[in-house]
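Forwarding these from the shared drive since the link keeps breaking.
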Amino acid sequence: MVNKLCLGVCDDGSYYTEIAKQVINYYNDSFNKSHSNLRRAYFNNMWRGTATLVAALLLILTLIQAVTSIIDVLPRRK
């Protein structure tokens, strides 16, 4: 009910019209929504954020190690 309270109201004479448009555009941007969800889920405190970064670093290092070991096993052509 509250979200649809001003659905049909159009007021272009307000001093806050430009700010309201910027807020609506910011809210509708999918990057901002994703950024907010990531911050809320993985970086809401220092320890969870640190653990997330360390886990991502370990995953990247594991992938690098796997790729280099596969490259070492492949036969070399001359």
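-- next protein --
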Amino acid sequence: MTDSKLSKDRHRLLASVGLLSIFTSSFVYMLGVHMLRPIMALYFDSVGYAAVMIGFFVSLNAVIPILFGMPIGSWIDRMGTRQAVVTGSLLGLTSATLFLIGSNQENIVLILLGQVINGIGAMFAWGSLQVAASLAANKQANNSKSNHVISNFSFVNSLGQLSGPAIGGFMSDWGGFQLVFYLFAGLNLLGIVLSTLLPGSYASTMKQMATDKLVKVAVKNKASDGTQRSNPKIGRNSNSEDNPVPTKKPSLWRSYGNGYSMMRYNKPFAIAILLNGILFMLIDVRTTFFPLFLSDMGLTNTEIGSMVSVSALAAIIVRPLAGNLMNWLGYHRIMMISIFSGATCLLMLMFQPGYWVLAAIVFVWGVCTSVNQPVALMMVSQTVAPSERGMGMSIRSMSNRFVQLINPVLFGTLTTVIGLTFGFAVMGVVLMGFGIVYHRQSKKRHATEE
């Protein structure tokens, strides 16, 4: 066996291990997040807080990520996936410790501090895992294989979304809320262990790509004229397309300017972020206030967790097909179908349907939101340069955190006045209105371009 073949086999093995570690780490992250979020709403409800306060408390994990999401994106680009995941997991472990101490001592301040810290940790961990998946997708031979990697990544995430609520509901019924907090701490420890197998930083990846290209150019030149030429574009401090390794550390304020420029001048990216935030409203309501709606119907925590998991079951079916759906329907049609279907599901809750009809509604609800993550990741991957991938993913996460901050507060205030049932209906009407406006604006834009 030649050295060249051994090198290729080793490269394939490392790439496979890297993908497996990315998928496993994302599953562990999603399992922890989707186990904890509905449980936190149920915990605050169990100690007697009104819906408006529950919405405020749940939204606290989004405050810091909104303010510092762009700098965190720049830090992820410099730190690399491994260090960023470790940082996020350590912060998650800290928040789990605060949840345990706060719930044991009935100290709401510690619980809320844990919410804030958990939000920061999630930005580091989830942002870096998205970057890792995006870079792995970019290494594929063509767009079809690249989209396949993103679809598989989203499919693995949906497994965590399916398991999390069910496990959290069962554990809280069996051993109380503290058992869920212990499990969340264990998942963050596991995340630290798994990070050792993740691919390296963006910078090291780009350096390796530049080195490989330099070798190929040298071999080609030597074969053509018998002399080895140097490539002046590739140098230690070069920032050309051949060697796009970032060498200048961006300042805190410069990162905000870079993020603003991406949103202002990259229209496809900006539209993808806007629609991502709109659809995330459906996801946030389902994980925060829908459990309270089910609790008012008399369901146990185990039944609530199982019902919420039905939406993730839909994601398991849909997400592997996300790449094909993107090619078949296109981004605009997918978003329109998702927005109107989700709005219809919210309106149907106003009639307080029976258990099995409710399960069917949740399944459709899951179908229309499950395409959001893979399609948004595809759009970011296709519209943002690799050197700015951390920033792009962080802006996407920022839009989600913005929804997690504003949506619970506004929706919690609304439902305190008119009740959960009518609150869902009002939100459904608002989403339908937005869908109609966006569709009309999109038609006008296409007509102008033609």
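The chain has 17 helices and no strands. The domain at 15-225+253-449 is CATH 1.20.1250.20 (Growth Hormone; Chain: A;).

- D.
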